[in-house]
Amino acid sequence: MEDSEAGRALRRFTWEEIGQRSGRGPPPQERWLVIERKVYDISHFCRRHPGGSRVISHYAGQDATDPFIAFHLDKALVRKYMSPLLIGELAPDQPSFEPSKNKRLVEDFRELRATVEKMGLLKPNHTFFILYLCHILVLDVAAWLTIWYFGASTVPFLFSAVLLGTVQAQAGWLQHDFGHLSVFSKSRWNHWVHKFVIGHLKGAPASWWNHLHFQHHAKPNCFRKDPDVNMHPLFFALGKTLSVELGVQKKKFMPYNHQHKYFFIIGPPALVPLYFQWYIFYFVVQRKQWVDLAWMLTFYIRFFFTYLPLLGVKGTLGLHLLVRFIESNWFVWITQMNHIPMHIDYDKNVDWFATQLQATCNVHQSLFNDWFSGHLNFQIEHHLFPTMPRHNYWKVAPLVKSLCAKHGIEYQCKPLLTAFADIVHSLKDSGELWLDAYLHK
């Protein structure tokens, strides 16, 4: 890449020029971004970006150095593919990132990243992940043996459902590891096993997860960029700023002042069995992801051929829906406890460290919390270092805390039940803010 740059004179750009190429406004909607002072035109490439067009477009008009480093394993290989997109570099009088960002914080975080790499905290312990997969498979077999040996009466049926719900939740955390390229040193190895875990063990498409989850990590809690907050405003009013804005605009899609109550109906119990369960099939067919569809079908074929002889059609369908119900409650409470109570707003283009800290919080460490949440109780560390193997989060946590203390940034960590309660409290607070603005502003 350096040779190709040496063979041509690079144009020089200012941050003002780059900021105008964010993909918004009248045509042509150009998209430029900056990585390590180099300026790249991604206007056409974004559609071919392996991680999806939206995740890279979210950084159009901005410096993308830190997310580029955070998300990619083989950076040298990626830079080769980036070479044709190179159109110039920042002018010598321009800072390496937007002047609005905290220079000291950006530099300190990059030093922390270098320290993490030197400590070997990005290297996985393969034994950990092998044992984790084995415990999932043992639970899966135990669920079938329970009904096979004890019969299809109520108690063994419910016990088997709990075991299978646990399998689904834990397989969800494991596919998350492979999806984040945290297990193998080669991206393609992670992708291959990811398709097996999420497709065969869970019946969901890897492409769907990648499409949504990478956007979430790129711009967490940023409305219109993080799909995890797309429930605003159709179902919920999220965040203080957005809720007041909604009220001032006199918009009312739901009775938001009661959202902390109907969350228990349309939130944890319903997300997977009533929405995800069906939408994923539409997603793979609409996007022609036939390999993912094949993997998904292997899950359903295995599940129904395994349980049909023991439970019949109605019993098997009932078991499947009950398992999805258990999985849904587990998934929603764990994934939302770190984000819904935190700051939710439009993208303000702040630095990587501050972006992640204002949108995430942690839950106290314990053997149970680590297992129950798939180590997502270390959500802060996970967001700062998304490819870090989860068994190393606790090791980097003190370094992250020190950096927060140095810059006066709050590092939130709370008990598990408090984290659950904060979801409800935050929904109640934002609902009341919406109501006040709707009635009086």
Low-pLDDT stretches are none
The class by helix and strand makeup works out as mainly alpha
Number of helix segments? Answer: 19
> Strand portion, in percent?
under 5%
Spell the H/E element sequence. HEHEEHHHEHHHHHHHHHHEHHHEH
What is the number of E strands? 6
Helix content: 55-70%
Major sheet description: 4 strands, mixed
User: Gap between N and C termini, in Å?
Assistant: 56 Å
Mean pLDDT: 95
Can you describe this structure?
The chain has 441 residues and is mainly alpha-helical. Helices cover 60% and strands 5% of the residues. The chain is built from 19 helices and six strands. The strands form two sheets. The chain has a four-stranded mixed beta sheet with strand order 1-4-3-2. Strands 5-6 form a two-stranded parallel ribbon. α13 packs antiparallel against α14 (290-336). The longest helix has 47 residues, at 290-336. It is globular. The chain starts with a helix and ends with a helix.
Question: In a nutshell, what does this entry contain?
Answer:
The protein is built from 19 helices and six strands.
